[in-house]
Amino acid sequence: MSIDIERRRLIVGGTLGLGALMLPIGRSLAADLLGARGFTHNVASGEPGCDSMLLWTRYVPSANVDDVRVEVEVATDADFTRVVAGGSGRTGAYRDWTVKLTVDGLQPRTTYWYRFIAPDGGKSPVGRTKTLPVGEVDRFGLGVFSCSNLPLGWFNAYAHAAAREDLDLWLHVGDYLYEYGIASFKDKLVAGREIMPAHAHEMISLADYRLRFACYRADADLQRLHQRAPMVALWDDHEITNDSWEGGAQNHQPESEGDWNARRAAAMQAYREWLPVSEEPWQAYRIGTLATLYRTESRMLARTRPAYPELAKAHEADDPEAALREFRDGAWRDPTATMLGSDQESWLAHEFRRNASAAHWQMVGMGTIMGRTLMPDEAPDWLRPGTSARTVEKFRREVRASRLDVPMWMDRWDGYPAARSRLLRSAQQADADLVMLSGDSHNAWAYSLAEDGQPAGVEFAGHSVTSPGMEGQMGADPKEVARAFIARNPELVWADTSQRGYLLIDITPQRVTGEWLFMRTTKSRSTEVAGAHRIAVERGRRRFPV
């Protein structure tokens, strides 16, 4: 039985625990999730190669057994009259009954259909996937997603993308789910959206993370997205908890939430169980001679602590401007600060040198934005009447710092300038046509990246699927906000600070075109598009047209 989140609605009140999930409230989705047997969450594919693919499903047996064997069939037709590959594997409660099998011996640039078969002969839903090409490629299409918070909106972006036939691969650059408990969302909840006991409290334990994934993966639009094409996925912070790094997180309090390393391990385990991803922390995917796509890890394995405490101390000094200058010239530029760690930095630099001469475009999937962003002077005037004094002071601090060229977001590449320079210089030294693909901010941005005064590449920063952006705090016209950000930041060439959706990346030998699609709404189910914006970079230019 494949679970569909739209089939049932469970309203959570008070502080429901796991024992309350089975309250006699009818055939609830919670009961379906915990009591489901068979293929519970459809199918998915990922980690594409030119001759291989990782296939995913979840199968819970009816019998009380420790583990179970599941088969997979791969065919060149949807009716499975031409089965060309397959495999088998085991799963059990030790991996939440999820199954991941990599199938080899496939042909390049070929569409395949696949299904899993249970020991009793029962079959999963049929999935469609497509291997990567080899040799010359005239076009390749990517759909890029980030920041999909289930209680705050419908996954209309997923539904719209899943209905297209012109995209070859999905790229999810993080915040596939969110860790917060339902109380954190208050009046932002969307009427009619499924609210699960998975959200009764913040996810901390392995059971919490697994149940939250089970909730998200029960969404019909997300299931359909995974069913239609392979996905390359990387985590950002909310798959663990907000503003996480190797040794902790802003939203982790050891005194009440336990050991950080235990929480981090639980989050990593659940992510790798529930998504069609390999155990490798980073990976390269060759798209013939057209491009190389890189999956990176910039959160849990090597990232050093962001410099927020040092920045806050500077703001609180008797002479904040002098302290901010000292911070800017000292702690902020610390060369030991890293997002990727030295191993991954070295790997990526070597990949740039190896692939830049063999593939036209070097495309890096990244959780957070690389483009430099300073707060415009006008920003405090944009805030809505009645904004809390704390928020007003926060904006004033960000303006004060920005006037001294200190960025406002220490949690993204702005907070790691030496590491940013190392990455961009490695692309320049490799003579690479660099394209960064990022998310995290919930808003849409396009940057022409520069290093040492020279073009270093471009960045398409995608907006969120549902998570609200900065427009929630601001009463100003979003177009005015975007214009001010562009005027303040030399690398920024375009922005939208008010709409949800997803990003299309169209890759050809001569240009890469990004198109931000804006969904009309996330408050109800609809695939209607409200608008779009397109911008392209030409091969060899390494910057957007002015």
Brief rundown of the structure:
The protein has 546 residues and is of the alpha+beta class. It has helices at residues 29-35, 156-162, 206-216, 220-228, 254-257, 260-274, 308-315, 320-329, 342-355, 379-382, 389-402, 417-429, 478-488, and strands at residues 38-46, 53-60, 67-75, 83-92, 98-103, 111-117, 127-130, 140-145, 169-172, 231-233, 244-245, 248-249, 283-287, 291-295, 361-365, 434-438, 444-451, 454-461, 492-496, 501-507, 511-519, 529-538. The model is unreliable at 5-28 (pLDDT under 50).
Please provide a written account of the structure.
The structure is a single chain. This protein is α+β, with helices and mostly antiparallel strands and 546 residues long. The chain is built from 13 helices and 22 strands. The strands form five sheets. It has a seven-stranded mixed sheet with strand order 13-14-15-16-18-17-19. Strands 10-9-8-20-21-22 form a six-stranded mixed sheet. Strands 4-3-6-7 form a four-stranded antiparallel sheet. Strand 3 (67-75) and strand 4 form a beta hairpin. The radius of gyration is 23 Å and the shape is globular. 49% of the residues are buried.
Summarize the biggest pleated sheet.
7 strands, mixed
Q: What form results from the Cα inertia axes?
A: globular
Gyration radius from CA atoms, angstroms: 23 Å
Structural class: alpha+beta
Low-confidence parts: 5-28
Question: Secondary structure elements and their pairing?
Answer:
Elements lengths: L28 H7 L2 E9 L6 E8 L6 E9 L7 E10 L5 E6 L7 E7 L9 E4 L9 E6 L10 H7 L6 E4 L33 H11 L3 H9 L2 E3 L10 E2 L2 E2 L4 H4 L2 H15 L8 E5 L3 E5 L12 H8 L4 H10 L12 H14 L5 E5 L13 H4 L6 H14 L14 H13 L4 E5 L5 E8 L2 E8 L16 H11 L3 E5 L4 E7 L3 E9 L9 E10 L8
